[in-house]
Amino acid sequence: MGKTIIISNRLPVQLKIEQGKLSATPSVGGLATGLKSVHRDGNGLWIGWSGLTEEDTPSEMESEIDSALADLNCSKVILNSDEIEGFYFGFSNRTVWPLFHYFLEYTEYELNFWETYKNVNQKFADAIIANGNEDDTIWVHDYQLMLVPQMVREVWPNVNIGFFLHIPFPSYEIFRTMPWREEVLQGLLGSDLIGFHTYDYERHFLSSVRRLLNLDVSFNDIYLDNRVIKVDSFPMGIDYQKFEKAAEASAARTGDERNDIQIRLDEHKKSAPGTKLIVSIDRLDYSKGIAKRINAFEYFLNKYPEYKTKVRLIILAVPSRSNVPQYQLLKREIDELVGRINGELSTVNWTPIWYFYRSLPFSDLIDLYTSSDIAWLTPLRDGMNLVAKEFIATRTDKKGVLILSEMAGSAYEMNEALLINPNNFEQQADTLKKAIEMPDEQQIARNTFLQNRLKRYNVETWANDFMGALNNMKLEEVSNISLKLSAQVLDNISEKYRSAKKRLLFLDYDGTLSGFHKDPQKASPDDELYELLDTISNQENTTMFLISGRDKDTFTRWFLPKKYNMIVEHGVWISRNGEEFKMMEQVKGEWMEKIRPVLESFVDRTPGSFIEEKNYSLAWHYRNTDPDFGNKRATELNTVLTSLIGNDDISILNGNKVMEVKNSNVNKGRASARIFSEENYQFVFAIGDDWTDEFMFQELPDSAITVKVGLQKTDAKYHVEGPKKVRELLKKFATLG
Ligand code: GDG
Question: Among 187, 218, 233, which residue terminates a domain?
Fold first, then answer.
């Protein structure tokens, strides 16, 4: 069992070099607390940037820094100031952050930023490789490191990787504007498990994967070559006990023990009894909606002037990313707004807004939470928003009102808060009034629900849930191995092949012998395939059938001169040894006249789809349509056809991006079973990728070796990953004579 490696942009350690002396203090953020059990208490390692640039690190102190970090189970990635500029302030915070928070107008697409982002992600991946092993479990965090999973996967194909995104994943319409969108998705898909705060972010991500990479997605599984990637939501919690205890300690402090801020807040309450304190705490970031909140506050005071002098808004804006121009502009905007409103509305005894632009020590933060009556959080977009949860955890007497934006991930779990749309000033003014006037019993009832939920789903549970899901995936994979064609299983099959007196093989074509092509007519066989099929079909005592849903004309062109045995249109037609196709089943096709116009109307309404007309069946192909739209139309068509057909003679087959209407008594299972019954075969083999091949897997005898191409659910005994592996398998047969 390997160790767990956590990887994030910043290490959970504050490094300082002052007058040549190094200090390393563990930081106590939510993430560090949540991961304590997988990091420091377990056999873990945390890799990240130390916060010191290469230029700021005297080379003679390198080893001292390394050993201080090693004592805390940490290891550093060294970044120079150009890298920080392009990777952190550039691509991460001038491209991804605004784009993922729906601020398209602030999003900058700079090739230099992207190049640096790639290089720095590679540095992080290299650090994992240098410090770990393939049997370690790796958990990558957040939007700064989206390419790391695939970079690690390339070196260690079997490693277990989880990724968690702490910010929203935007809708496809937004995400697709990014020039490097495919690379970013492919980077993330190096993971085994990808976690988001909410189901909506998960849904947006899956939609982008389907539409931009054209991958198959079933529920929350993504099928990529030989791997299944799971996507799930894990709403992050807080260290509830820490906030609850700190609030109790704050309440217990008396006299000189009280912090400055506590004393000031107490004085305010004494001098103005009955007034309400409204607090808001955020990093100074445009996504947090601070300017809008200030405007909404002014709107409220004008709409309900009776509250002037009765309420005060305290804004704590923590400095953040001040190298990014947008943040400097925002700072100026807020300074001016606060100045203007205070200038216009203040009285001798009352200032409407107290504004702090700084970071406070933890205990001051708690005092601010506990002294306030209302928390008012209005992000325009926020992955989760932990401040909302922290405010509730500090309400030890269960009083207090939380007003929270619907646009925060936490709103999904905090239904008992007063939820608002931050763009709706009217609603916010009324909600503030409601909060100010809310009776104690109602506050207590709401907070009791909220607290119970936050206590239960705290940050440790969040981390353990994620790690549990990641480790489970490995277990699931292990339990699936019986189905995978391992080298040993292949040896056994080869032995049976070699020793059998009579062999029978059924080989599906599309998706099995050949990969899919946008235009099915272009997916013609290549020379290597012809050579392989020639060898096998010429082997003694071997009957090889190509078995396909395709029309007989195409197969006549491709394979008749080769004299392969063929069954086409799922079993309507058969050709042996180069003879003309004959009907295998007596089928009627009158129904086709009725069904064709229906399919045509779906083609008209579904760009990219088309009809394939065969002698006794009609197929509607939708591989080249927009995937979401195509699936929706397929469901619709299924419903229409089912109600139209209404008898058992005709059936609908849902294949791989194709829906086929055909006679019910015709399928690959029935056809292959009929061939099997003609002679006494000792070795029977069937391989196919599609739902229509399942009929063969079901109807052939138990002793048959049945192989599914792909990882989807199947009745076959074994699976292989894709057409490339099928070829390898057949090459093996070809050598066995
Ligand atoms: C990102 C996502 C997601 C704030 N001021 C002070 C201070 N804080 C602490 C709070 C809280 C944290 O900072 C802020 O967390 P948020 O969740 O509110 O927001 P982001 O920083 O934007 O975090 C966000 C989060 O990642 C986790 O996945 O929820 O959506 O944007 O813990 O307490 N702490 C101290 N002094 C302050 O002045 N000590």
Answer: 233
645-649: long-range contacts at Cβ-Cβ below 8 A with a sequence spacing of 24 or more? 645/591, 645/595, 649/591
Least confident of 41-45, 604-608, 714-718, 732-736: 41-45
Mean pLDDT of 301-323: 93
Q: Please check the confidence at residue 218 and state whether its pLDDT lies above 80.
A: no
Please indicate whether residue 167, judged by its CB atom, sits closer than 6 Å to ligand 1. yes
Helices (H), 190-289: 199-213, 240-252, 260-271
**Do 284 and 379 belong together in one domain?**
yes
Return the best residue to mutate from 385, 402, 459 for the ligand 1 pocket (most ligand atoms within 8 A of CB).
385
Give the domain range for residue 706: 481-585+666-737
Q: Is the CB of 30 under 6 A from ligand 1?
A: yes
255 shares its domain with 165: no
Residue 685: closest CA among 482, 485, 478 = 485
Question: What pLDDT score does 138 carry?
Answer: 97
* For the CA of 361, the nearest atom of ligand 1: 39
Query: Which of 175, 203, 233 marks a domain boundary?
Result: 233
Nearest-angstrom CA–CA distance, 284 and 331: 7
Q: How far is the CA of 385 from the centre of ligand 1 (A)?
A: 7
> Which residue has the CA at smallest separation from atom 21 of ligand 1?
283
Q: How many residues does the chain have?
A: 737
Query: What is the C-alpha to C-alpha distance for residues 308 and 350, in angstroms, rounded to an integer?
Result: 9
Q: Are residues 399 and 284 located together in one domain of the fold?
A: yes
* CB of 404 shorter than 6 A to ligand 1: no
In a domain, 198, yes or no: yes
CA 610 to mean position of chain CA atoms: 32
For residue 2, report the distance from its CA to the centre of ligand 1, in Å: 32
Q: What is the CATH number of the domain that holds 536?
A: 3.40.50.1000
CA–chain centroid gap for 26, Å, is 30
Q: Which of 364, 367, 508, 693 is catalytic?
A: 508
- Taking all residues of the chain, what is their mean pLDDT, rounded to a whole number? 92
**DSSP code of 619?**
E
**CA-nearest residue, atom 34 of ligand 1:** 362
- Is the CB of 330 inside a 6 Å radius of any atom of ligand 1? no
Question: Which pLDDT tens digit goes with each residue over 362-386?
Answer: 999 999 999 999 999 999 999 999 9
Tokens of 624: 């080249």
Q: What is the pLDDT of residues 510-564, one digit of tens each?
A: 999 998 777 777 789 999 999 999 999 999 999 999 999 999 999 999 999 999 9
Claim to verify: residue 174 and residue 301 sit in the same structural domain: no
> Is 508 a residue of the active site?
yes
Taking the CA of residue 166 as reference, the ligand 1 atom at the shortest distance is 28
Which residues have CB under 8 Å from 143's CB, separation 6+? 92, 96, 97, 100, 165, 166, 167
3-state DSSP call for residue 543? strand
Condensed to tens digits (0 to 9), the pLDDT of residues 640-687 reads 888 788 777 888 888 889 999 988 878 899 999 999 999 999 999 999
Ligand 1 atom 39: residue of nearest CA: 362
Does residue 657 sit in the same domain as residue 671?
Answer: no
For residue 540, the CA-to-ligand 1 centroid distance in Å is 72
Per residue in 571-621, pLDDT (tens digit) is 999 999 999 999 987 787 888 888 998 999 899 888 889 999 888 889 999
Q: What is the pLDDT, as a whole number, of residue 28?
A: 63
| Position 466 confidence tier, pLDDT thresholds 50, 70, 90 | very high
637 lines ligand 1 (CB under 6 A): no
Answer yes or no: is the C-beta of 166 below 6 A from any ligand 1 atom.
Answer: yes
pLDDT at 485: 80
Based on the domain organization, do 498 and 599 belong to the same domain?
A: no
Residue 236, ligand 1, Cβ within 6 A:
yes
Instruction: Please check whether residue 554 is in contact with residue 572, taking contact to mean a CB–CB distance below 8 angstroms.
Output: no
- Residue 482: the pLDDT is 46
pTM: 0.82
What CATH code is carried by the domain that includes residue 637?
3.30.70.1020
CB of 382 within 6 A of ligand 1: the answer is yes
